[in-house]
């Protein structure tokens, strides 16, 4: 039996690569297509209506073109806003990326956790629900940062990121009421694990970072159990805006040697 249908990963930019990395380790036999909505980037400063319309339409186009066996929305902003619309529109399994509040609350000793995402993600009712279900006995400090998204994109374009810039981006989170007691930070934007070293260097207090990547790798493995994988084509990354050659290195390092415009 042969089946060359890929798994499709979708984000506004490079953030989904933090989800691709653990998925590759879990499923080395699978073919991946990565789609970045670079023409729509960034999502985190957009309104709900725009994302709820844009993401299902684009994923519909991508599903038609690449016939994936499964789609991973490797973006917290798109998932917390558009997941139900995408699931209603497409008849294939859709895995979303939502803030990893459950494991963060399970591991927190101080019972103070931070949810660090985009402004659009941290204001979602979806996050209220996760906090109410899994962290009701925790103080949950939310902080949205567009600067960290820009810094992660710059890092993957080969730039060195000043720790002071990362520090300024997260200072309001640490200075919020109770912020000194944060011992666990949920990286609730897929761009942020790409800055894990810089974030660790920018925070003086001891904190653990938690993100959705490992959980998504387990979920994809479960959903594709027993399926055949044929790798007769190389992995492809597609962009909705012209391809930026300075990203070639980062995408090649994640296994995407061919970059194209959608
Ligand atoms: N990577 C995306 C997320 O997980 C959003 C980044 C952006 O476009 O603002 O939320």
UniProtKB/TrEMBL annotation:
Family the entry assigns: Belongs to the aspartate/glutamate racemases family.
Known EC number: 5.1.1.3
Protein name listed in UniProt: Glutamate racemase
Protein residues bound to substrate: 11-12, 43-44, 76-77, 190-191
Pathway: Cell wall biogenesis; peptidoglycan biosynthesis
Organism: Sphingomonas jeddahensis
Any one GO molecular function term: glutamate racemase activity
Reactions catalysed according to its record: L-glutamate = D-glutamate
Keyword list, A-Z: Cell shape, Cell wall biogenesis/degradation, Isomerase, Peptidoglycan synthesis
One GO biological process term: regulation of cell shape
Statement: the UniProt record of this protein carries the keyword Isomerase: yes
Physiological role: Provides the (R)-glutamate required for cell wall biosynthesis.
Top-rank taxon, per record: Bacteria
InterPro entries membership: Asp/Glu/hydantoin_racemase, Asp/Glu_race, Asp/Glu_racemase_AS_1, Asp/Glu_racemase_AS_2, Glu_race
Active site: 75 (proton donor/acceptor), 189 (proton donor/acceptor)
Top EC class for this record: isomerase
């Amino acid at each position: 039996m042969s089946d060359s249908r890929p798994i499709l990963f979708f984000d506004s930019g490079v953030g989904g690569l933090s989800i691709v990395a653990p998925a590759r380790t879990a499923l080395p036999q699978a073919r991946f297509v990565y789609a970045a909505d670079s023409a729509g980037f960034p999502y985190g400063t957009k309104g709900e209506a725009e994302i709820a319309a844009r993401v299902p339409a684009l994923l519909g186009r991508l599903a038609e073109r690449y016939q994936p066996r499964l789609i991973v929305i490797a973006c917290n902003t798109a998932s917390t806003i558009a997941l139900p619309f995408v699931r209603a529109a497409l008849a294939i399994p859709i895995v979303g990326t939502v803030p990893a509040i459950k494991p963060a609350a399970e591991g927190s000793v101080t019972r103070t956790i931070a949810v660090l995402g985009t402004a659009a993600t941290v204001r979602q009712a979806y996050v209220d629900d996760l906090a109410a279900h899994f962290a009701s006995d925790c103080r949950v400090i939310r902080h949205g940062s567009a600067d960290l998204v820009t810094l992660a994109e710059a890092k993957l374009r080969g730039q060195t990121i000043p720790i002071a810039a990362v520090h300024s981006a997260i200072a309001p989170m640490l200075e919020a009421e109770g912020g000194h007691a944060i011992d666990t930070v949920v990286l609730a934007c897929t761009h942020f694990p790409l800055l894990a070293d810089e974030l660790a260097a920018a925070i003086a207090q001891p904190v653990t970072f938690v993100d959705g990547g490992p959980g998504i790798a387990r979920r994809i493995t479960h959903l594709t159990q027993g399926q055949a994988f044929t790798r007769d084509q190389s992995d492809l990354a597609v962009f909705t805006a012209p391809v930026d050659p300075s990203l070639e290195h980062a995408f090649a390092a994640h296994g995407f040697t061919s970059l194209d415009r959608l």
